[in-house]
Amino acid sequence: MYTLEREQWLASPADVVWDFLQNPANLDRITPPDLRFAIVSDVPAVMYDGLIIAYQIAIPHFGSHDWITEIKHVCPGRSFVDEQRLGPYRFWYHRHEIEAVAGGTRMHDRVSYRPPFGVLGRLLHPLYIRPTLERIFDYRREQLNILLGGG
Description:
Layout: E1 2-10, H1 14-21, E2 38-39, E3 52-59, E4 63-75, E5 79-86, E6 91-101, E7 104-114, H2 118-148
Antiparallel strand pairs: 1-7, 2-3, 3-4, 4-5, 5-6, 6-7
């Protein structure tokens, strides 16, 4: 099992950050274009516990994949989890948290994941999987800075 953690400060108030995060359609706005991310299920404007979201995503060099996520443990204005039900990882559990701080919002992400392909996945992890995840989260940071103000 591997973990990726990221923390980011945003200039927007916590309620503005939450309004952005709670709309599943906004995930497309913070995902790198080369992943050709597309939500293929109907989604509401506001997420809720038990929401199932189906995506299509292109993983460079590995083709297009279906990804089904369940939204869980929603604490409005504070946190939620997206957990993979079907997708490219053997396990994916992503906790999103926000907290109002002086002058803005602190956002914290923690992803616990297990790559696919057993031993091959463990070998690919430092060479491809982890760098790809880092790149995705770097892009996300940049886009959130643009959309919600950051530093």
